[in-house]
Amino acid sequence: MALDPQLLEILACPDTHHSPLTYDEPAQTLTCTQCHRIFEVRDDIPILLLDEARHPGAAGPEEETA
Fold it and tell me: Among 15, 19, 49, 62, which lies 20 to 30 A Cα-Cα from 35?
């Protein structure tokens, strides 16, 4: 199931600039148009926590090594 288009219109980056987010449905991510942080969408719920956001080029959860 995709995110509701009305929800996508009001979502914004939780950082102080509150820029709009772009949705990548196949990757299930939201990306900030200003700082380019990548936020996961899990079970159709956007996880807009700065502590859990990835930066472009950073390893994703499946790429991290212990």
Answer: 62
